[in-house]
Write a structure and sequence with these properties.
ABC_transporter-like_ATP-bd; 5 strands; ATP binding; transport; 4 helices; two-stranded parallel ribbon; 156 residues; nucleotide-binding; alpha+beta
Length: 156
């Protein structure tokens, strides 16, 4: 079985403070892996590096043989614990954004998911905060994309 994730001698430094020091890790395709550790141990940094939200100070990361970036966004889904979306957006505008950004985004499936949660597509995101937990649970089950790798960031 080949590896979906390969990390070799990875370093990340913030203002001369070493957040990750010589991390080497291989994760085979088809496996579920959890990152466990105390606060400040580098879990969030590692996830952000694998999603190209941060740039490593040294070392190498490959996802399905490719460096994280535009090429890997089609196979990777990152669901952070806190939203980085603009709350002024309407739900339907978010669907348009996802459709433009992800080639494999299934807008029809996403709208069915919204309908099942009784979310109005013309509502602004901030109006749907009370439904966010239900949305996250439903999203994880039905996923309107076809990724091979999911990063779910969860605090606590």
């Amino acid at each position: 079985m080949s590896n979906l994730i390969e990390i070799k001698n990875l370093f990340k430094e913030y203002n001369e403070i070493l957040a990750l020091n010589n991390v080497t890790l291989s994760i085979p395709k088809g496996k579920i892996v959890g990152l466990l550790g105390p606060n400040g141990s580098g879990k969030t940094t590692l996830i952000k590096l694998m999603n190209k939200l941060l740039v490593p100070s040294g070392g190498e990361i490959t996802i399905d043989g490719m460096s994280p970036g535009i090429e890997t966004k089609e196979i990777v889904s990152y669901l952070p614990d806190k939203s980085y979306l603009n709350e002024w957006m309407r739900v339907d505008e978010l669907m348009d954004f996802f459709e433009d950004f992800y080639k494999d985004f299934n807008k029809k499936k996403a709208y069915k998911m919204l309908e099942s949660l009784k979310i109005n597509p013309t509502d602004k995101l901030y109006e749907q905060r009370s439904q966010s937990l239900s949305f996250r649970r439903t999203y994880r089950r039905s996923r309107p994309r076809k990724q091979r790798l999911y990063f779910k960031h969860h605090y606590k």
